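Example S7 (structure tokens).
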């Protein structure tokens, strides 16, 4: 009876987190994806600035990409005025990459809130997390193709009997292997503001949006290599 209750609890957990985004949040999520798509699909021919305030540079990028970008006033006030000056020259670059380069120079980060892209501090960006479920059973499933062993004839001077047989190794990753890959290769505060839980062959990940993007890219690579 205890085991049945445990299984029921796990099943309920998966059911709850499989749809972590509620109706209102789904609209915001769609908006955030649209913002990212717009930034990634917009190529800026030239960006050239000399000692320009970061707010003016970001405003220019936002205008060229036709998106709304808002600065966290408190985070911006914590940056010294001299450190807010941007000098750079970029050509033929995606708006998203240009934005990342600019805010990286002053130590700020992207976040999303109320349907807009925010530029804020690292701490606030990491605190803005969402929970998603990733079904990785297609990656961890064992494909039963019954590969034949490799046979190699023994040398004439070998006194052992019979051929040498090399059986193929089973190297399909497990869910635990994938979790280890994620935590080792993706930069996030795992165990603090970001976490991974395994339930019934699925990964339940709580993390900032940029971390989820990196997780999705890693899982795509694992699927391509399978």
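Recovered sequence:
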């Amino acid at each position: 009876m205890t085991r049945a209750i445990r299984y029921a609890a796990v099943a309920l957990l998966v059911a709850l987190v499989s749809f972590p985004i509620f109706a209102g949040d789904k609209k915001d999520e769609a908006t955030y994806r649209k913002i990212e798509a717009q930034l990634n699909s917009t190529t800026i021919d030239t960006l050239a600035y000399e000692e320009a305030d970061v707010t003016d540079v970001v405003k220019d990028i936002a205008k060229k990409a036709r998106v709304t970008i808002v600065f966290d006033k408190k985070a911006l006030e914590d940056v010294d005025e001299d450190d807010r000056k941007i000098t750079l020259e970029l050509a033929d670059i995606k708006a998203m990459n240009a934005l990342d380069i600019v805010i990286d120079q002053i130590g700020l980060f992207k976040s999303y809130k109320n349907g807009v892209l925010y530029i804020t501090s690292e701490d606030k960006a990491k605190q803005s997390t969402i929970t998603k479920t990733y079904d990785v059973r297609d990656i961890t499933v064992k494909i039963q193709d019954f590969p034949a062993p490799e046979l190699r004839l023994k040398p004439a001077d070998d006194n052992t009997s019979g051929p040498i047989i090399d059986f193929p190794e089973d190297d399909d990753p497990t869910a635990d292997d994938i979790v280890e890959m994620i935590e080792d290769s993706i930069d996030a505060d795992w165990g603090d503001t970001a976490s991974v839980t395994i339930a019934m062959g699925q990964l339940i990940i709580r993390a900032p949006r940029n971390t989820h993007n990196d997780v999705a890219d890693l899982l795509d690579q694992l699927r391509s290599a399978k």
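Notes on this example. Strands lie at 43-53, 69-71, 85-94, 109-113, 116-120, 130-135, 150-152, 164-166, 195-199, 202-207.
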